[in-house]
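Reviewers asked in the last cycle whether our approach scales beyond single polypeptides. To address this, we selected a multi-component target totalling 484 residues and predicted its structure end to end. The input consisted of the following lines:
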Amino acid sequence: MATNLESSLPLETFGKHIYSITEITREIKNLLESNIPTVWVQGEISNFKIHSSGHMYFSLKDEGAQIPCVMWRWNNHDLYFTPQDGMKVLAQGNITVYEKRGYYQLDVLQLTPAGIGELQLAFERLKNKLRAEGLFDERYKKPLPSYPERIGIVTSPTGAAIRDLVSIIRRRFPSVQLILNPVRVQGDGAAQEIATAITEFNEYGQVELIIVGRGGGSLEDLWAFNEEVVARAIFNSKIPVISAVGHEIDFSISDFVADLRAPTPSAAAELAVRNREELLEMINGFCTKINQALSTKIQYFRERIHNLERSYALRKPTDLIKQYSQRVDELAKNLETALSHRIQLMRENVDSMQKRLGALNPCSVLKRGYSICYKTEDGRIVRRAAELTPEDKIRVRFYEGKILGTVDIVEA
Amino acid sequence: MTERSFESALRRLEEIVEELERGDIPLEESLKIYEEGMELIRFCNERLNKAEKRLLKLVKKEDGSFQLELMS
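The resulting structure, written as C-alpha cells, was:
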C-alpha cells in the first residue's frame, strides 16, 4: 500500500501539459483508489434512499465531514435490517471516484449497526414515524372472526412457533384448516419474505385470519418484525392479523400495527380459536333449553285442551240434558202446584156451591114448610094450580113424608 | 364456503332458543323450528367433533394462481 502521495506527474510538465477534465479526474481516481485500501468507517446515515434498482444511496457523516455512499444491490440484499437516517453504523468499503459527476464516494460492502443501542434507536425512530402516520390507530384494527374456518400462518416451517401453533389449535378446535406460507424469520431478506407472505394470503383470499410470528430471540434475531415493509404489509392486510413475536416481554413494530398482539405463538393459538369443550357445553345447553321449551309448550297446549274438555262449551250435551231434566222437573212441579191449586179452587167452588146449593136445597125449603106437589099421572112437579083439574091425583111431599090426594077445587 | 358456516349455525341456534322460550309461537311453528334446532345441534356437534386436518402449505404458482400442498 503506497502511502506516499507522489504524483505520477512530473513537476516539470505542470506548466506545460493541459489536462482534460477526464484526464485529471482519472489521475484523482488512481490516486485515491490505489492508496486507500478497503476500510471500515463509522458514521451516521443521512439521506438514505433505495432505488427501484435495489441499490442504496446515502451519506455517512459526522460533525466534521460527510462522504456520499453507495451500496449495490448485490452487496445489500442480505442486510437483516434496513438502514435509517440517524442510525450510526459501521461500514466497510472502498473509496471510489465517480468520474461522471466528479465526486468520491464509499462503495459499501458491509454495513452493521454500530452497537445494539443503534438498533433500539432505529426501533424508536420507526415506531414514532409509523405512529405519526396512524398505522397503530385503534380505528384501523379489525375484529377477529369468532369461528375462523381457515387460518393462514406466516412463520418458519421449522422451529417451535409452528409446532406450538398447530398443536394448540388442533387441541382447541381440530376442524380448523391451517395453511402455512413458510418464510425465513431472521437474517437475509426475511422482512421482505414475511411481507410478501402476508400479501399473498390477501391475494389468495380464502383465510379468515392470519397469524404472523416466531419464537424468542435477540433484538437482531427479531429485527425483521421491526422492519417497515412488514409493518406496511400488516397494515394493508384486509384479513385480520395476529402478531406473535418472540417472548412475553418483547414488543415488535408488527405487534403495534397488527389487529391483535399475542405475547407468544402459543397465546396466539388460544386467541385465534375458541375452545371446543366450551362450545360443546354451550351447544348441550341449547339442546337442553330447546327440549325444555318445547315440552313446556306441549304441556301448555295439553292443559289448554284439558281445560277445554272440561269447559262448559264442550260439556253442553250432557249438561243440556241435565238442564232439561231439571226444567222438566220444575215444570212438573209447577204443574202439580198449578193443578193442586186448581183443584183447591175447584173444591172451594164446590164448597161454596154446596153451601149455596145447601141454601137452595129443596129439603131445606121443605123444612121451612113448603111442600112439593107432583101430578101423579106424569110425575111432574106442579107449579101452578092451573096445571091441575079437579079429580087429578096428586102426590104431595112434605119435609117428612108424603100424602096421596085428589084435587077438589082448582082456584087459578 | 358454500355450506353453512359454524358461526351462522350457532347464531341461528341462539335465535331458536330465544323464540321457543318466548312462547308466543303457535304449536306447529314451534315444532318446525324445534326440528331445525335439533338439526343445527347435530351439525355443530359434528363440526366440533371432526377429526383434525393436515397442515397445508400455500404455494404461489408462476401464473399467479395459488395452490395448497401438504406440508411434509
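The CA atoms of residues 147 and 273 of chain A lie 7 Å apart. We regard this as preliminary and will revisit it once experimental data from Aim 1 are available.
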